[in-house]
Amino acid sequence: MKKFLSIVFCLIAVSGFSQDITGIWRGYFNQVEYMTTEDGNKVAVNSNRYKLEVQVDLKSNRFDGVTYSYLSTIFYGKASAAGTFNIKSKKVLMEELKLIEVRMSGVSDACIMTYFLQYSKSGDEEFLEGTYTSMNLRDSSNCGRGTVFLRRVITSDFYKEPFLVKREKEAENNKTKTITPDKVIAKTEKPVEPKKTTPIEKNIKKNTVIPPKKNIVSKTPPKKTDPKITPSKTKDIKVAVIDTLKKIDKKITPLVIPKVLATRENEVVRTITTNANEISINVYDNGTIDNDTVSVYLDKKLVISKQRLTTNAINVKFKLDDTNNYHELVMVAENLGEIPPNTSLMVVIAGTKQYEVRITSNEQKNAVVIFKYEKD
User: Fold this and answer.
1) Distance (Å, rounded) from C-alpha 30 to C-alpha 146?
2) If you write DSSP's letter for every residue of 160-196 in order, what string do you get?
3) How far apart are CA 308 and CA 218, in angstroms?
4) 134: which of 111, 189, 213, 228 fits an S-S bond (Cβ 3.0–4.6 Å)?
């Protein structure tokens, strides 16, 4: 029983503290396209699905890696990537840096992607899910955005990168070093010296009469030896361990994307990289006061609801640091005012720096501003 409990607690400790995303992740991404309905509204549809494989080498909270976007192992694009993993929130921000290799037919423009993912675990399965944006390498135009689903796997559709092979060898070497043979321990132990007896003690021993031993019946029953663990018992232990881990795993509440963000196109109009810890945003009407009304979402959560733009600022504040290193702010036009489209001026104060972002949005397109934190 003690052995069983020790196995359970050992596995729980590993699962509770092991948040290393180093390894191979494979799944797909959906490229979201929009179609116009009869009443003039745009509806998002997932029409194109591509395979995606990511290999990650995590060190502290930052990682390097590679990505494969492909329809088959013959037609694919391979890119180098880098990013951060927030151990507390389990969020992953990953950016493709440059294309390493492209194999495709026809004339197509290459795009690089930025991923916003959430780590989760269910039983023995581990997942990375979220969204992505993309940019055309030729003219920096928008290549589209969509959803991402990845699952941890042990094999690659291509080949393991050298950094993963190196990590596996290091892990094997560490295992062999931790086991010390019993013979080595025995050699290092000091021999026990026999106790010296004095002449007086010798005489006492000679003259001492030792009475014969009596048959003493023990009141306590002899200890039973533990039976060997059979394969069936091993299976039962594994099942019990998995059930225990499932109970201990915290349930991750899925992020519900508001309808106005899911059914409209979300265009990235500005990306601001800063080392400031506190961001203050003031939003004004950019022009004539014509009853433009907006809502503001921060990381897909509503923070400003249907407020009218005037010369008085609508204010939003949030923080950035190593453990919370990006935010996505979305400006949604609730109406177009008296003079379409809905226009606004966003003044961003980040530490000692100030940025001005002029935003135009309508009932088919939202404006997105991304904030990234870099300490250095």
Assistant:
1) 5
2) --HHHHHHHHHHHHHHHHH---HHHHHHHSPPPPPPP
3) 90
4) 111
Identify whether the C-beta of residue 354 lies closer than 8 Å to the C-beta of residue 347.
yes
The C-alpha atoms of residue 133 and residue 113 are separated, in whole angstroms, by 6
CA atoms within 13 A on the CB side of 339: 9
Strand pairing category for 265-274 and 365-373:
parallel
CA atoms lying within 13 Å on the CB side of residue 8: 17
The per-residue pLDDT string of the chain (376 residues; one tens digit each, 9 = 90 and over) reads 444 444 443 433 333 334 789 999 999 998 876 666 677 666 665 567 889 999 999 998 899 999 999 887 777 889 999 999 998 899 999 999 999 988 876 656 778 899 999 999 888 889 999 999 998 888 888 888 888 999 999 999 898 999 999 988 888 888 776 655 554 444 444 555 655 555 545 554 555 555 555 554 545 555 554 455 455 555 555 555 555 545 544 444 455 678 888 888 888 888 999 999 999 999 988 766 767 888 999 988 899 999 888 888 889 999 888 778 888 999 898 887 666 777 788 899 998 899 988 888 888 888 889 998 887 6
Tokens of 62: 């930052």
Q: Which helix (H) or strand (E) holds 238?
A: helix 231-248
What is the residue whose two structure tokens read 């991304």? 370
**With contact defined as beta carbons under 8 Å apart, do 325 and 226 qualify?**
no
Largest CA distance in the chain: 122
Question: Are 63 and 56 within 8 A, CB to CB?
Answer: yes
Beta-bridge partner residues of 82: 64, 95
Query: How far apart, in whole angstroms, are the C-alpha atoms of residue 140 and residue 112?
Result: 10
Pairing of strands 76-86, 293-298: unpaired
CA–chain centroid gap for 11, Å, is: 21
Contacts by 332-335, CB closer than 8 A, 24 or more apart = 332/260, 332/261, 332/264, 332/294, 332/295, 332/296, 332/297, 332/361, 332/366, 333/292, 333/293, 333/294, 333/361, 333/362, 333/363, 333/366, 334/293, 334/294, 334/295, 334/306, 335/291, 335/292, 335/293
- Residue 97's contacts (CB-CB under 8 Å, 6 or more residues apart) are 79, 80, 81, 82, 112
- Residue 222: cis peptide before it, omega within 30 degrees of 0: no
